[in-house]
Every structure is written in structure tokens, then in C-alpha cells.
């Protein structure tokens, strides 16, 4: 059925309200229409974009951190993956809003492996990045880092290194670099991570401040 709204921003509000109300079938119907419009390059119906998909990811994040779970966490992970698959299949370009929302979800799930796959791709403009279905680095057309993405990147690095600063006693003879190396080594040995940041904390401090 044709949709009466002609403004994409209005769809953002509509979908957010419908998701909050648990009207998932209606949201799916709207999303399919917007995707069909993108696929057909329609001029009469707004086309799906990264902002629309970020509404869904943001909603799933809210559900994942809620005290009363509407869905099992594994189902929420699957729903996020489904959104990514649909977006990639259509080759819808990612933007900073979507990337920030995606990082927020994975960080909330303590999935730093997925976080750093995304962050590494954002920073690495030339080198190919492994694509295992989570995202396509070729879709990072808009690399502008807005405020939300800026904060999410810093929060992810903080989560990655925070255990070291809590567990290591403050000894003047231990340099920051050595602390970070010790932290990385322990996490690798303990099997806590399988993906590490390609860009060091020093690089981040130099380029993100």
C-alpha cells in the first residue's frame, strides 16, 4: 500500500513511536515500502536511508538495556544482524548517525570485537577490511565524524582499556605504553578478545582531540 507521508524525517518519528508501542508488523510494512522505493528509485515515496535503519538499531539497544526484557538478547542480536544484512543487500550508504548507533548497541552488549571492526573500517580509508556479513567497509562514503560517533569511539576505547587502569597499581616506573601492552597481552591470553584496535590510543589522542 502507498504511504501518505512524503517527508523522511516524519518516518523517523513515526517508526520510533510504533517501535516503542511494540507495533512491529506495521514497522516492517513501512520499512519494506521504503526499501522498495529505494530499490525502484521512486520519486513519489521517500527512500530508506541510514537514519531509518538507525531508528531500529537504537530501539533494539533500548530493549537490550531495559530491566524487563521484551525479547531475549540473542534475538535482539539477530534482529540487528538482519537490519545490517538488509542494508548491505541494498547498498544503502552508512552515515555517522547509523555507525554511532551501531557502536552503542554493540558496546552495550560488550561486543568489542564488532565495535573495533567498525571503528577500524571508519579510520582505515584505504586498506581492505574483512567482511564477514557484519558490515561492508565500502559503504562508508560519508566519513564525517559527528559528535555522537566521536563519543562512541572514545567510549569503546575506554571500555577496551579500562580493566587495565583498574587492575594495575599506579607505579611510577610503569609507562602508559607498557600498561597498555600488558592489558592487551592479558586479554589475548584469556581469550577475551579476538579483534583489536588497528589504531593505538596514542594515535587516537593525536587525531581525535
Q: How would you describe the overall organization of this protein?
A:
The protein is mainly alpha-helical and 209 residues long. Helix content is 63%, strand content 0%. The chain has nine helices and no strands. Helix 1 runs parallel beside helix 3, helix 3 (50-65) packs parallel to helix 5 and helix 5 (96-108) packs parallel to helix 7 (147-167). The longest helix is centred in the last third of the chain and has 21 residues, at 147-167. It is globular. The model is unreliable at 126-131, 137-142, 167-171 and 184-193 (pLDDT under 50).
Structural key phrases:
mainly alpha, single chain, 209 residues
The rough form would be described as globular
Number of strands: 0
Task: Characterize the main sheet.
Answer: none
Strand content range = under 5%
The total of helices stands at 9
The percent of residues in helical segments reads 55-70%
Order of helices and strands: HHHHHHHHH
Distance between the termini: 49 Å
Low-confidence parts: 126-131, 137-142, 167-171, 184-193
Rg is 19 Å
Structural class: mainly alpha
User: How much is the average pLDDT?
Assistant: 80
Amino acid at each position: 500500500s502507498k504511504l501518505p507521508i512524503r517527508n523522511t524525517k516524519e518516518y523517523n518519528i513515526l517508526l520510533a513511536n510504533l517501535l516503542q508501542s511494540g507495533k512491529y508488523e506495521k514497522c516492517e510494512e513501512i520499512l519494506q515500502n521504503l526499501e522498495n522505493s529505494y530499490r525502484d528509485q521512486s520519486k513519489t515515496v521517500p527512500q530508506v536511508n541510514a537514519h531509518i535503519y538507525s531508528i531500529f538499531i537504537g530501539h533494539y539497544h533500548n530493549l537490550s538495556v531495559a530491566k524487563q526484557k521484551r525479547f531475549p538478547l540473542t534475538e535482539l542480536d539477530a534482529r540487528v544482524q538482519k537490519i545490517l544484512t538488509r542494508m548491505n543487500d541494498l547498498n544503502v550508504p552508512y552515515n555517522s548517525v547509523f555507525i554511532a548507533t551501531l557502536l552503542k548497541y554493540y558496546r552495550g552488549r560488550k561486543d568489542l570485537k564488532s565495535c573495533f571492526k567498525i571503528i577500524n573500517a571508519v579510520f582505515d580509508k584505504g586498506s581492505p577490511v574483512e567482511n564477514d556479513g557484519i558490515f561492508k567497509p565500502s559503504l562508508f562514503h560519508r566519513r564525517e565524524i559527528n559528535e555522537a560517533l566521536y563519543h562512541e569511539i572514545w567510549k569503546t576505547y575506554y571500555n577496551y582499556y579500562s580493566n587495565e587502569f583498574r587492575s594495575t597499581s599506579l607505579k611510577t616506573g610503569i609507562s602508559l605504553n607498557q600498561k597498555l601492552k600488558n592489558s592487551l597481552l592479558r586479554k589475548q591470553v584469556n581469550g577475551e578478545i579476538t579483534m583489536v584496535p588497528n589504531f593505538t590510543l596514542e594515535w587516537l589522542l593525536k587525531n581525535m582531540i
